[in-house]
Amino acid sequence: PRRRGEIAEATQVSIGQVHKLKTALLERDWIEETPDGVVVRNPDQLLDAWRSDIAPAGTRRGYYTTLHGGPLEKAVEAAVRTAGPHAALAGRSAANWHAPWLAAGSVELYAGRTGAETLANALALEPAPKGPNVWITVLEDDGPLMDAVDVGSGLRATSLVQTYLDLYRGGERDREAA
Fold it and tell me: pTM higher than 0.85 for the full model?
């Protein structure tokens, strides 16, 4: 359990916003207050509501690179590491690290504006209106990057929850994988 101040600091929102959210979650019986703080009471209901209500995290842009296979994987991993906290593997690309059984036909990444530029330069990406093999979602806020996890030697991927939400929003195969 975490206190409101800890939550506000970790999420970079005001204590007032944390209080409003806490009140809404209490009214829906999704959380409960304990002497140690707030605890999620009905995680399945909360996640179901979250996934049906979530909007895409930013502007999704398609790119093309001549790299493919192993060289593309290595270049993407190096670029994400270079971007540090400003980028992370997302969608199927993140899922491949969390549970490597979902084939990814293209690379999916989340990045802040700075991170998007770093990725585009490092991967020599060209905008691709048709047939992109790299997708970068340029985030409006860093929320999805804040809880990104290290999946190996500084390589960051979206959290399990964010990866689930991204997959659920995708097509039938992605939803099944979620």
Answer: no
